[in-house]
Amino acid sequence: MLVWFHPSGVFRLPLRYSTCKFLGVPPGRGSCPLTGPLPFDLIYTDYHGLQQMKQHMGLSLRKHKCHIRVIDTFGTEPAYNHEEYATLHGYRTNWGYWNLHGQQYMTMFPHTPDNSFMGFVAEELNETERMFIQRNKVNNMAVVYGKDAGMWKGKENFLAVLHHYMEIHGTVYYETQRPPEVPAFVKNHGLLPQQELQQLLRKAKLFIGFGFPYEGPAPLEAIANGCIFLQPKFNPPHSSLNHEFFRGKPTSRKVSSQHPYAEEYIGRPHVITIDFNNSEEFNAAIREIMKINVEPFLPYEYTCEGMLERVHAYIQNQ
């Protein structure tokens, strides 16, 4: 039996109630042992859920650490995971030092052998949907990957270049007026429900990233809907040594682009990675994109079948 813990609780129950009910935790703050054996074999949670379990289970958590699988977006390297080593060598962060086996951390993308690749499921199109997309693609339509207005700051120059070739659409949140960071020539739809976003991606030719967020699911969803993903290359690569976002994360991994998995494992023609500061290279990439046609593509590991196969293998063998 498996149980999924989330910061908001198990099966959407408040954590305190669910902890008592499913873990057999007596009243108090983890000062007493559990009242009985755990009624399940594996616990899937994240770092926030792990912290809350520690608060409620106390020392009892040590006995049951082998049951835990941590859904970990960016990965946890051994130096950060081992509490004593992390403390002595300056690797201790707010996220690591749990002393788990490295493969108990399960990442969204397969970027490190230290952890396990859990992944996720992206929507897979049937043949009718694929044919519809190929018939209705708008060759000069681009959608920007950036829901927060702050992501658009400083991007005016290459957006102006892109505007010479394509109609640009955005999905930026705003309350009463257009966010000032979004140029007037951008058609901003505001935050869209998932179904409406899918429809927008099915029409667009290009999905363009600004460099943030890192390694999200949206590029795979766009590629699965027949878009070409254009993303910036980082030189030097981003890491905890040179970029604020990664400071405090339990990894020293160097990220070479906004989405290294898409760059390395998918690549052209579905994914094009360039230096956005090189105007000649940027112009050439846009012209190339307008000339080529791609079919919707979803790597097997992100299909429903691929995900179930992977989870089954972990449950049976790990």
From TrEMBL:
For this UniProt record, the keywords arranged alphabetically read as follows:
Glycoprotein, Glycosyltransferase, Golgi apparatus, Membrane, Signal-anchor, Transferase, Transmembrane, Transmembrane helix
Which Enzyme Commission number(s) are listed?
Answer: 2.4.1.155
Instruction: Tell me if Glycoprotein is a UniProt keyword of this record.
Output: yes
Q: Can you give the residue ranges of the Glycosyltransferase family 18 catalytic domain? A: 21-318
Tell me where on the tree of life, at the top rank, the source sits. Answer: Eukaryota
Q: Which Pfam families match?
A: Glyco_transf_18
Q: Which family does it belong to?
A: Belongs to the glycosyltransferase 18 family.
| UniProt subcellular location | Golgi apparatus membrane
Named in its record, the pathway it takes part in is: Protein modification; protein glycosylation
Q: What is this protein called?
A: alpha-1,6-mannosyl-glycoprotein 6-beta-N-acetylglucosaminyltransferase
This protein's membrane topology, according to the annotation, is: Single-pass type II membrane protein
The chemistry this enzyme catalyses reads: N(4)-{beta-D-GlcNAc-(1->2)-[beta-D-GlcNAc-(1->4)]-alpha-D-Man-(1->3)-[beta-D-GlcNAc-(1->2)-alpha-D-Man-(1->6)]-beta-D-Man-(1->4)-beta-D-GlcNAc-(1->4)-beta-D-GlcNAc}-L-asparaginyl-[protein] + UDP-N-acetyl-alpha-D-glucosamine = N(4)-{beta-D-GlcNAc-(1->2)-[beta-D-GlcNAc-(1->4)]-alpha-D-Man-(1->3)-[beta-D-GlcNAc-(1->2)-[beta-D-GlcNAc-(1->6)]-alpha-D-Man-(1->6)]-beta-D-Man-(1->4)-beta-D-GlcNAc-(1->4)-beta-D-GlcNAc}-L-asparaginyl-[protein] + UDP + H(+)
Q: Does the UniProt entry include the keyword Isomerase? A: no
Q: What is its main location?
A: Golgi
Q: Which InterPro entries match?
A: GT18_cat (IPR026116), MGAT5_Glycosyltransferase (IPR052105)
